[in-house]
Design goal:
This protein has 177 residues and is of the alpha+beta class. The chain has helices spanning 11-39, 103-112, 138-176; strands at 47-66, 79-89, 96-101, 116-123, 129-132. A five-stranded antiparallel β-sheet has the order 3-2-1-4-5.
C-alpha cells in the first residue's frame, strides 16, 4: 500500500539506493580496516637498513589458496593453485623474497637464474625483515605505509560524508514538498 503523498519510486531509483548503501558499508569497512592497520604501523626508527642485497631465484612454490567465491555453491571448498617464485639472498642464508608469478614465468625465472636486488630492512627487537625496492629508505617505506592507511581512511570518510550530506539534502527537500 502506497501513501498518497509519496510518489512511487522507479526501479532505477531503488537500484541506485541499494548500490550507494552497499558502497556506504564498504566505506565504513575501509575506515575500520584503516584504523586497525594504523595500530600496526611502525615508525622509520624501528627499521634497521641492511643495505641492498642480491637475491637469486631458487625454487618454484605452488600453494593452494582459498578462492573468494560468492555463489550458491558454498559447500564445495573451492581452491586455486597459486605459483610463487622464491628468491634466496646470496649473502644471508635466511632472507627470502617471494613473488607471485604464472607457472610459465616462474619456470623461466628459474632457468634464466637472473638475480634481483632488493633493499632489506630488519625490524629492531625481532627477527623479522622486509624487502623493498633498492631506492627505498626506511623513511620512504614508513611514509608509504602511512600514506596507504591515510588514503584508506580518507576515501572511506569522504564517501560517508558525501552520502550523509546527500541524505540530509534529500530529506530537507522532501520535507519542503
Amino acid at each position: 500500500m502506497t501513501t498518497p503523498n509519496r510518489p512511487k519510486r522507479s526501479r532505477w531509483h531503488n537500484f541506485l539506493f541499494f548500490i550507494t548503501f552497499g558502497l556506504l558499508l564498504v566505506a565504513i569497512g575501509a575506515i575500520k580496516a584503516g584504523f586497525d592497520l594504523m595500530e600496526g604501523l611502525r615508525s622509520a626508527d624501528e627499521y634497521q637498513d641492511q643495505g641492498v642485497v642480491t637475491f637469486i631465484p631458487k625454487r618454484v612454490i605452488q600453494k593452494q589458496e582459498e578462492m573468494q567465491v560468492t555463489s550458491r555453491v558454498v559447500r564445495s571448498n573451492q581452491t586455486k593453485t597459486v605459483t610463487y617464485l622464491e628468491y634466496w639472498a646470496q649473502e644471508h642464508s635466511g632472507w627470502r623474497y617471494r613473488v607471485k608469478r604464472s607457472a610459465s614465468l616462474a619456470r623461466e625465472g628459474i632457468k634464466s637464474g637472473s638475480p634481483i636486488e632488493r633493499r632489506v630492512f630488519t625490524i629492531k627487537d625481532t627477527k623479522r625483515y622486509i624487502t623493498t625496492e633498492p631506492e627505498a629508505t626506511a623513511e620512504s617505506y614508513a611514509r608509504g605505509e602511512r600514506g596507504y592507511v591515510q588514503l584508506l581512511i580518507g576515501l572511506g570518510g569522504a564517501y560517508c560524508a558525501a552520502y550523509f550530506t546527500y541524505l540530509l539534502i534529500y530529506w530537507r527537500q522532501r520535507r519542503k514538498a
